[in-house]
Amino acid sequence: MRTGRALSIAVAAVAVAAGTVAIAPSAQAAGSGNCQLYDACYYYNSNESGAFYGFSRATAITTERFGGGGKGQGMLVKNDAAYVLNRNGFTLRVDYNSSNRCAYACQHIPAWTGTNLNSTLKNNNAAHVWVGNWSS
């Protein structure tokens, strides 16, 4: 009886682990053409239009390219975005420089909102970071 129960628990643990492995890649897939919950979604054009790219973590923007079709498809996200949608519960800060320091210019985008980048950051975006407290 003990061996049968232990075997059942082991099989269940393997099944759960296998399910987690199978699910994790899609949950992490916030790349070109994807804009998922909790992402910072950059759009090539103003007013949430054109090609887009979703970032799932704070980062300096380097070689990522817009996807999802539309104007801007294949263009670099760095220094080419006009609109950012914050699909996260934290305020998103978009920075002019890659250092994430807001040394020259930055723009704060409240949780769960989107906006056109201001005239300093439009086509001059280099990094972003989530700041502040969670807002539901």
Reported CATH architecture of the largest domain: Sandwich
Number of domains: 2
Indicate the proportion of strand residues.
25-35%
Fraction of helical residues: 10-25%
CATH class of the largest domain: Mainly Beta
Number of helical elements: 1
Instruction: Give Rg in angstroms.
Output: 19 Å
- Report strand order across the widest sheet: 2-1-4-7
Provide the succession of SSEs: HEEEEEEEE
Summarize this structure briefly.
With 136 residues, the chain is of the alpha+beta class.
Reconstruct the topology from this structure.
Elements: H1 2-28, E1 40-45, E2 49-55, E3 59-60, E4 83-86, E5 91-95, E6 106-109, E7 114-116, E8 127-131
Antiparallel strand pairs: 1-2, 1-4, 3-8, 4-7, 5-6, 5-8
Question: What do these coordinates show?
Answer:
The chain has 136 residues and is an alpha+beta fold. The protein has 2 domains: 29 residues; 92 residues, Gamma-B Crystallin, domain 1, CATH 2.60.20. Helices cover 20% and strands 26% of the residues. The chain is built from 1 helix and 8 strands. The strands form 2 sheets. The protein has a 4-stranded antiparallel β-sheet, with no helix packed on it. A hairpin with a 3-residue loop joins β1 and β2. The longest helix is centred in the first third of the chain and has 27 residues. It is globular. The N and C termini lie far apart (48 Å).
